[in-house]
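If you are new to this repository, start here. Below is one unmodified record pulled from the training split, so you can see the exact layout before writing a loader.
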Amino acid sequence: MKRALMLAVGAALAVAVAAGTYAETKESAIGGYCPVAYVKMGKAVKGDARWSSERDGQTFLFSAAQAKEMFDKSPDQFNVAYHGYCATGIAMGKKIASNPEIFTVNKGVTYLFSSAEAKAMFDKDPDGSSAKADKHWASLR
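And here is the target side for that same chain:
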């Protein structure tokens, strides 16, 4: 019985893949959070795979169809710095994974951080911190 069920599920999956209805499992950018929500809502909101767009080799997920439309029309308005790595880490010359729920939007750019302490360090001098990070980012990419 279990074997028959497994075969049926496998066959259904094969049909879905052949029909193009099974989405590839690709890691989404910024932990699957919506880049538009950071800017427009001032909060971290999980995106949904139903609404996604590719940019700079990254797949972004959006919280709603409207957010995807906004991004697609003007992606530069929703830029997430350093491919979502911790901005303070990048400023120190290190690639450190970020927590997408800890962020700052400065001059239209979203910066993510690994911790509240990293965010606080960045927020003391966002222009100076981002200038340092920009210099390091070229070699860390």
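Two things worth knowing about this chain: The chain has two domains: 27-77, 80-141. The radius of gyration is 19 Å.
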